[in-house]
Amino acid sequence: MKKLAFLLSLMALCLFSTPANASTKSGSFKVGENTFLLNNKPFVVKAAEVHYPRIPREYWEQRIQMCKALGMNTLCIYIFWNSHEQQEGVFDFTGNNDIRAFVQLAQKNGMWVIVRPGPYVCAEWEMGGLPWWLLKKKDIRLREQDPYFMERLEIFEKKVGEQLGDLTIEKGGPIIMVQVENEYGSYGEDKPYISAVRDIIRKSGFDKVELFQCDWSSNFTKNGLDDLTWTMNFGTGANIDNEFKKLGELRPNSPKMCSEFWSGWFDKWGGRHETRGAEAMVDGISQMLDRGISFSLYMTHGGTNWGHWAGANSPGFAPDVTSYDYDAPINEAGQTTDKFWKLRKAMEKYSGDFDPATGKWGAPKKLPAVPKEYPTIAVPKFELKEFAPIVYGCGGLETSADQNDLTFEYNGLGWGSMLYSVGLPEVTGQSVLSFESHDYAQVFVNDKFIGKIDRVKHENSLILPATKKGDQLLILVEGMGRINFGRAIKDFKGIVGEVKMKATVDGHDVSYTLKGWEKWCIDDDYKWAVRALEGASGKRVDEYHEGFAKETKALGTRGYYRGYFNLKKTGDTFLNLENWGKGQVYVNGHAIGRHWYIGPQQTLYVPGCWLKKGKNEVIVLDVMGPRGEKTIEGLQKPIIDKLNLDRPQTHRLEGQKIDLSGEKPVKEGEFAAGNGWQEVKFDKPVSGRYVCIEALNSHMNREYCCIAEWYMLGADGTRLSREPWQVAYCDDEDIESGNKTADKIFDLQESTYWSTNRGVKYPHHLVIDLGQDQTFTGFQYLPRVEAGAPESIKQYRIYVKSSLFKGL
Length: 808
Ligand code: GLA
Prior knowledge:
Layout lengths: L1 H16 L11 E3 L4 E3 L2 E3 L2 E4 L10 H10 L4 E5 L2 H4 L14 H10 L3 E5 L30 H18 L10 E5 L11 H13 L6 E6 L13 E7 L4 H11 L6 E6 L15 H13 L3 E5 L13 E2 L4 E2 L18 H12 L4 E2 L4 E2 L17 E5 L2 E4 L26 E8 L7 E8 L1 E6 L2 E7 L6 E4 L7 E7 L15 E12 L2 E6 L4 E6 L2 H11 L12 H7 L3 E9 L5 E4 L5 E6 L2 E7 L6 E4 L7 E9 L8 E5 L31 E4 L7 E18 L10 E2 L1 E5 L12 E5 L23 E2 L8 E19 L12 E7 L7
Parallel strand pairs: 4-5, 4-11, 5-6, 6-7, 7-8, 8-9, 9-10, 10-11
Antiparallel strand pairs: 1-2, 2-3, 12-13, 14-15, 16-33, 17-27, 18-23, 18-26, 19-22, 19-24, 20-21, 20-23, 24-25, 27-32, 28-31, 28-33, 29-30, 29-32, 34-41, 35-40, 35-41, 36-39, 37-40, 38-40
Helix pairs in contact: 5-6, 8-9
Bound molecules: alpha-D-galactopyranose (GLA).
């Protein structure tokens, strides 16, 4: 009898704690004392972050069911503004953008939904989700109360409300919470702006649903609004109690939630593939659940940055790769991983109901079965025989009439490349050509390739040979993803500013500003690629291309390649682009993403649902030209961890060793042990361009040395911008396991860090180049965020100089 009563109550609970039955009834989700309340009962959110535009629509349901099989009860989604409004005023909520269908599918599968409608989402997504066309207004202030920005965001949020406003829990839908903005603390301090976004979201149809803000534990107070719930973001390895300490002090009765618990991390071109340990991830989740803390696992399934949607990180410029596998429990192709099974096992223990009064979880329930994975196939090697020179892709768009407006945005181009041409002056000797290239520029004089200017490597100039008056300078600039993090999101593409040529003529320095440009847009668009190939094969006559003879010669093998393969059976596959240079790939009209031989990603994921029995078409737009055979093959396993670099990733040249003899530190001291930011003031202001951090030993008496983040404080005691920072030297860096290079100390992410290698002895030196002389009054240092701040530095010395240190 007792057993029956228990079963009945369990069934009732099940009925109440899944949204499937909420389709007919309205429910409630509220913030209670130390717990969330779902239909007035304590509820722990176990959310899986997944992004609908990163998964083919055909696979949405399988991915949702995979998340459910992990023991999750909620899905957490961003809304990607720039995917829905690719042209100003033209909205698309269909196909892969059908957010209403996605949320309804979640509900059908018994999952609650958390919606994060931005306007900014970060997410390693082009411009953090903001539409590029906002930049047509040159002086726009993004994520601030700029009238145009606010006007556009209000229009967009209204559209989101039209799609989802009636799917909130009180109206019978599965949406339990909606987020306001995203991690604004790492962008600025502006409560009026955040309040305005909150009001817009409320007005857009989310009038009753619970609203929240997410930030880091170190900065959430900056913009925390009194009437919103505050949640924290942190990753695998973090010290959970520390992360919630401040929140506990400020709002002792608030339920706790980690709104982004990072399962892994994203990869950038030219960097090692990032991984985070399965045990550490599961341990973090178990620790939270033991305390009844809610979480969203970012990412539970990462998916793919199709086409041009990958963003780029800053400071500096670190474009993200196409795969958003994220080392998540469900891999890019929707398959289980070791992390998946370990997590599922742990989640089983927490599948009952949590009782905040006792701090205990009720009897476990059986987790749903793991859905079937989609089959994978191998595609035998095939050749891409058709070719159209890249100039055949020119001219899809009308460029701005002002000849010296060189950015994509002013010329109406969102994504792709631009080709620029100008006549050169006569210079008898060599000269230096300099300009700011966003992002990958190749320079030619007449029909000769001179070199590249790669923004990733902070390059901005190259040497030109002697020129005659009227020689033609040709520059091809490929734009990569717009920066999605920090103030640098206002990221124009193409040539930004003026192009200068400096030379010495008759013993005098002369500087020319090159003017009178001709320019052509090369749109990143499948239809345009097909048109280019048709033009080259004579299937269509584009008189326009006739005048391009010189350019065609100079650009050589750069262009569009097309080939086909036949299938008897479809399935997911990974196209291997190792023979190719750099560019974009389209399969059967689907833009499947960027490729770049430097890696770490060498294969591109192609979901079987975009393939067909019989003939399949592949087009590669290669802006560098192929490096080997013009062939591709489909593999059954991805290659996302293979770097192919011409120089090591480390910041130390062979034989280089810093020599500090005769240098006097501007400060020396001892850091405290343990987690958290530490601030050190200098005795008096000092000036210089190069800052050397010398670490003498560690608190744990071990050889490793680690730093998570570092800031210099300016004359007024506030943090100086780290935009221009580069690592000038670092004596030792771990480049094997994950990504622990020296530049991680200014990547704005507290969970990543610089680490030296095992067994390399102290002292350690890291020299930052700040780009120019600056005045400092001190610095801020953050050791690793994991419990006990592993490998944190004890004694240190700081040196500052205007010129480089000896030995470098
Ligand atoms: C932050 C952002 C996310 C994402 C992660 C890193 O937490 O809020 O959008 O960029 O960092 O993956």
